[in-house]
Design brief:
This protein has 167 residues and is mainly β. The chain has 2 domains: 2-86 and 128-165, Calycin beta-barrel core domain (Lipocalin), CATH 2.40.128.20; 89-124, no CATH class. 7% of the residues lie in helices and 51% in strands. The chain is built from 1 helix and 12 strands, in the order ββββββββαββββ. Strands 1-2-3-4-5-6-7-10-11-12 form a 10-stranded antiparallel barrel. A two-stranded antiparallel ribbon has the order 8-9. A hairpin with a 4-residue loop joins strand 6 and strand 7 (76-81). The longest helix is centred in the last third of the chain and has 12 residues, at 106-117. The chain is elongated, with a radius of gyration of 21 Å. The N and C termini lie close together (6 Å). It holds the Pfam family BFA1_C. Residues 1-23, 87-106 are annotated as: Disordered. Residues 126-166 form the Biogenesis factor required for ATP synthase 1-like C-terminal domain. This is Biogenesis factor required for ATP synthase 1-like C-terminal domain-containing protein.
Length: 167
């Protein structure tokens, strides 16, 4: 399908005008998925992915780039990574730099646990950035897709809503 003049909102403000073309071809054994985006500066990025059907299951397709395409009976589909890969970064020191000091108790323990939970230190486990795509085929030849890109800390970096006309 094709979508033209679509808008992509970015966190941090601003809008991008994009043109997209995508398609899924399936012959019963393999699937070919092509996705092309042209941004407002006419820079083009094309991605072609091939995957194999496994075990006769027609609603879960494994793509070669580590993603799975889930075709749902309702006419919806989603494309998600098979697993989220961690990026472990350590500062080379001890666990938390306290050595053999006794653990805090009571309200101090709660405060420390809360501070650790909201910490943005470099020694926390981060994920490799990934995308998730959700879509639905509506009546006629129209398809709506939402592509979300996530940062390594799990926060959403950008989201794109696209309405496409299938040919």
């Amino acid at each position: 399908g094709d979508g033209e003049g679509t808008r992509s909102s970015r966190l941090g403000g601003g809008m991008l005008k994009t043109k997209t073309r995508s398609g899924v071809q399936w012959d019963g054994k393999t699937i070919r998925r092509e996705f092309e985006v042209v941004d407002e500066r006419l820079r083009s990025a094309r991605k072609v992915q091939f995957g194999d059907m496994g075990g006769g299951v027609v609603d879960v397709l494994s793509l070669e780039d580590g993603y799975r395409l889930l075709l749902l009976p309702s006419g919806c589909f989603c494309c998600l990574p098979e697993r989220l890969e961690p990026e472990i970064q350590t500062d080379g020191g001890g666990e938390d730099g306290r050595g053999d000091a006794p653990a805090p108790e009571g309200d101090m323990a709660k405060l420390e646990a809360m501070m650790k939970g909201f910490s943005v230190d470099d020694n926390i486990v981060k994920l490799k950035a990934f995308t998730a795509e959700l879509g639905v085929y509506t009546g006629g030849k129209e398809r709506k897709r939402m592509v979300r890109m996530y940062n390594s800390d799990g926060t959403m970096m950008a989201t794109t809503l696209v309405t496409e006309q299938r040919s």
